[in-house]
């Protein structure tokens, strides 16, 4: 029995009950406060979030703008096709990850099951094409060539094809008007990647997962203009995914149209003549090796001399940009990127680098005059030039006696430029250069715009190379370890060269300057650079940024943004020097190394100027160069491993001019047959409804006459 009386327990119980009551009241008060905070204070915010959890959006792709030539003819536009697509998300919900569905789909589309399955697999570093490089959440196109019957089969048997759609869709088309290709200039489309979406997040043109973006060429350069803005419709859905209402809708905005300075007819002629020149070169023998020329690649640029606008730009080997539409096949991808493809995706007009050979000589000619040498000379044009026991030969060992710099350009006399370069090298200190060496020959090349990009409105342009003293030092630092490791004093040519470079590769040696003076050695240029330079000589000295885009036109045609020519410098020529070089280049076409290619040309009506070039490349056959201009255009062509300048490229360039001016084989001008009798000036006509009125394409000028003949100079 307890000694504590019952009355002693009452206060304790009371205290406990009061404490419990206070605790319960506090919890209720806290809960009520929290509910008030959530429902009253932040009620609207959470209501919106809850509603969004039941909102689905449907993206309506924008119609991509067209790419047009200067006359309004579509080079790239759209056509409606039946596109069969697969939702990877829906297929992954199937027990076998959709394998049975894709197999049935292959049967309907008459495709191999493997090809269909490959299309929907995701790309990674180890997955070969074909694969899907876009978002896994967007429909993946299987084919854009479905027939109406096939589409109907898929729609009528929805239970057999979950996640498969067959819808009419606007699909990119590369029309190839007049037979022109222009693949490397136009580029192609590919699915947007997560990286591209992230990069464009805070720009004026954000990307959606359903977007197709431009890859290479104009499709890439003007992608944000061409793409337009996709439309979005948002629907309210219940827990079962059924639509219960529409929240909002934004209309898709079609992309702008890009009008270019290209002319489809001239483009077709340029491509045809480049291809034919390469085929003809492969029939000729290299007299040094006794084997036929490989003529493995080439390019040509036709440019307006007074504006820098590109009228035609061809690169060979080429490809069909339509191969990318709807997703490229593994077979086609291998053809375009494989080891044996010779890389047709490269635009060799802006990405092909090679030693320029004698078309470079306008630069050392200018440099010599600026350094104080007399244009008239006379300068000894001997058959060879000897420096320290090393013999540098003139082309075909011709000896023209004492001549001017102008005549040296006409007959392409190497030894004149050898002597000038060697003499200036000695003035600059030779192997022990002065602290502030003048380096006229290298300085002038930079002033001509070499060693840097021209600024053409196409992606991935390369800069070429001017091998000046700074470049020599940087190159030596980067390669000296390998040279010193592999070099041998008494080894083969490559080993001896490595040995010499190991010891003094940082120095500007006499041989370097001599080779450089005729566009050989380590000098690299691109066709677009040389076309820009020769256009500048034509127009009096202005170096224009080459442009392909001419105007951006809104879908309704009401807003036109013209892309006006811009200059990036002036040639470092005084007026008298310019005029005399201009006369000398006219002499090349009438009595010099290119005269045999311009026989019968109406020189009195359309003065032609030219320079031939044949560049030697160690381990390969010679590179053919042919640079020309009139008062209206500059045309530059090059063929890798194609032989001599006038021999391989000359006939093709002549035929391009025949087409431009309507000149027949006898030198008569027919303006009705001329593709561009005067330089382009205006934009195509735009109708009141915004459509652009394209002029009839017709057939390219039927080229008359054959300027090819045997014999004569072939520099």
Q: Which features does this protein show?
A:
715 residues, alpha+beta, seven-stranded mixed β-sheet, disordered C terminus
Question: Any overview of this molecule?
Answer:
The protein contains 23 helices and 25 strands. Helix 4 (99-109) packs across helix 5 (113-120). It is of the alpha+beta class. The radius of gyration is 35 Å and the shape is elongated.
Largest sheet: 7 strands, mixed
User: How many E strands?
Assistant: 25
Helicity range: 25-40%
Overall structural class, as computed from helix and strand content, comes to: alpha+beta
Unreliable segments of 5+ consecutive residues: 701-715
Rounded to an integer in angstroms, the radius of gyration calculated over CA atoms is 35 Å
- Coarse morphology: elongated
Q: Strand portion, in percent?
A: 15-25%
Alpha carbon gap, first and last residue: 132 Å
Q: Helical element count?
A: 23
Mean pLDDT: 87
Structure at a glance:
The chain starts with 9 loop residues before the first helix and ends in a 22-residue tail after the last strand. Helix content is 34%, strand content 19%.
Please write out the topology.
Blueprint: H1 10-41, H2 43-52, E1 55-60, E2 67-68, E3 74-86, H3 88-92, H4 99-109, H5 113-120, E4 140-143, H6 148-156, E5 164-174, H7 183-186, E6 188-191, H8 194-199, E7 212-215, H9 217-221, H10 223-227, E8 231-237, E9 243-250, E10 257-260, H11 264-281, E11 297-304, E12 310-316, H12 330-337, H13 348-351, H14 362-370, E13 379-381, E14 384-387, E15 390-393, E16 401-403, H15 405-411, H16 414-427, H17 440-447, H18 469-486, H19 493-504, H20 510-516, H21 527-539, E17 542-544, E18 549-553, E19 560-562, E20 567-570, H22 575-590, E21 609-615, E22 623-629, E23 633-640, H23 645-661, E24 685-686, E25 692-693
Parallel strand pairs: 2-10
Antiparallel strand pairs: 1-8, 2-3, 3-4, 3-5, 6-7, 8-9, 10-18, 11-12, 11-23, 13-16, 14-15, 17-20, 18-19, 21-22, 22-23, 24-25
Helix pairs in contact: 4-5, 11-23, 14-17, 15-22, 16-20, 18-19
């Amino acid at each position: 029995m307890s000694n504590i009386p019952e009355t002693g327990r009452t206060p304790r119980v009371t205290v406990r009950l009061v404490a419990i009551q206070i605790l319960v009241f506090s919890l209720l008060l806290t809960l009520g406060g929290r509910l008030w905070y959530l429902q009253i204070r932040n009620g609207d915010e959470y209501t919106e979030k809850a509603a969004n959890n039941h909102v689905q959006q449907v993206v309506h792709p924008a119609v991509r703008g067209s790419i047009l030539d200067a006359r309004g003819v579509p080079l790239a536009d759209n056509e409606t096709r039946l596109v069969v697509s697969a939702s990877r998300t829906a297929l992954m919900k199937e027990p076998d990850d959709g394998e049975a569905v894709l197999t049935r789909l292959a049967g309907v589309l008459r495709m191999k099951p493997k090809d269909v399955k490959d299309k929907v697999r995701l790309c990674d570093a180890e997955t070969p094409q074909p694969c899907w490089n876009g978002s896994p959440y967007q429909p993946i196109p299987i084919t854009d060539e479905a027939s109406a019957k096939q589409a109907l089969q898929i729609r009528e048997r929805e239970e057999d094809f979950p996640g498969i759609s067959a819808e009419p869709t606007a699909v990119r088309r590369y029309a190839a008007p007049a037979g022109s290709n222009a693949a490397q200039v136009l580029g192609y489309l590919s699915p947007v990647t997560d990286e591209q979406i992230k990069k464009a997040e805070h720009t004026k043109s954000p990307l959606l997962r359903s977007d197709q973006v431009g890859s290479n060429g104009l499709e890439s350069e003007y992608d944000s203009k061409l793409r337009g803005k996709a439309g979005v419709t948002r629907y309210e859905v219940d827990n079962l995914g059924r639509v219960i209402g529409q929240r909002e809708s934004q209309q898709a905005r079609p992309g702008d149209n890009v009008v270019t300075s290209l002319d489809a007819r001239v483009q077709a002629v340029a491509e045809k003549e480049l291809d034919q020149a390469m085929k003809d070169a492969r029939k000729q023998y290299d007299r040094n090796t006794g084997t036929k020329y490989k003529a493995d690649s080439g390019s040509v640029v036709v440019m307006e001399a007074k504006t820098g606008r590109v009228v035609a730009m061809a690169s060979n080997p080429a490809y069909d940009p339509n191969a990318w539409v709807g997703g490229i096949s593994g077979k086609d991808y291998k053809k375009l990127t494989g080891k044996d493809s010779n890389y047709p995706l490269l635009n060799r007009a802006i990405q092909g680098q090679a030693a320029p050979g004698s078309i470079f000589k306008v630069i050392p000619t200018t440099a010599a005059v600026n350094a104080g040498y007399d244009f008239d000379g006379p300068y000894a044009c001997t058959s060879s030039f000897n420096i320290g026991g090393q013999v540098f030969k003139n082309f075909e060992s011709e000896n023209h006696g004492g001549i001017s710099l102008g005549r040296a350009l006409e007959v392409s006399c190497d030894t004149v430029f050898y002597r000038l370069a060697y003499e200036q090298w000695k003035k600059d200190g030779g192997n022990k250069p002065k602290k502030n060496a003048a380096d006229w020959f290298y300085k002038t090349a930079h002033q001509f715009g070499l060693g840097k990009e021209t600024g053409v409105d196409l992606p991935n342009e390369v800069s070429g190379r001017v091998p000046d003293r700074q470049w020599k030092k940087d190159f030596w630092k980067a390669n000296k370890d390998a040279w010193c490791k592999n070099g041998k004093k008494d080894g083969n040519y490559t080993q001896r060269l490595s040995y010499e470079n190991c010891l003094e590769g940082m120095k500007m040696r006499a041989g370097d300057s001599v080779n450089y003076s005729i566009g050989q050695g380590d000098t690299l240029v691109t066709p677009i650079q040389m076309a820009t330079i020769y256009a500048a000589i034509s127009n009096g000295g202005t170096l224009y940024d080459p442009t392909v885009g001419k105007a951006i036109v809104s879908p309704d045609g009401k807003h036109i943004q013209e892309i006006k020519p811009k200059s990036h410098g002036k040639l470092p020529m005084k007026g008298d020097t310019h005029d005399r070089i201009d006369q000398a280049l006219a002499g090349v076409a009438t009595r010099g190394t290119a005269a045999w290619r311009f026989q019968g040309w109406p020189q009195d009506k359309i003065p032609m100027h030219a320079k031939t070039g044949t560049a030697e490349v160690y381990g390969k056959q010679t590179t053919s160069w042919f640079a020309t201009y009139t008062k209206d255009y500059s045309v530059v062509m090059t063929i890798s491993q194609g032989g001599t300048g006038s021999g391989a490229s000359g006939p093709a360039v002549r035929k391009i001019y025949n087409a431009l001016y309507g000149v027949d084989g006898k030198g008569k001008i027919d303006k009705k047959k001329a593709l561009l009798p005067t330089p382009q000036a205006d934009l195509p006509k735009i109708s009141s409804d915004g459509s652009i009125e394209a002029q009839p394409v017709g057939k390219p000028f039927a080229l008359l006459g054959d300027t090819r003949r045997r014999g004569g100079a072939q520099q």
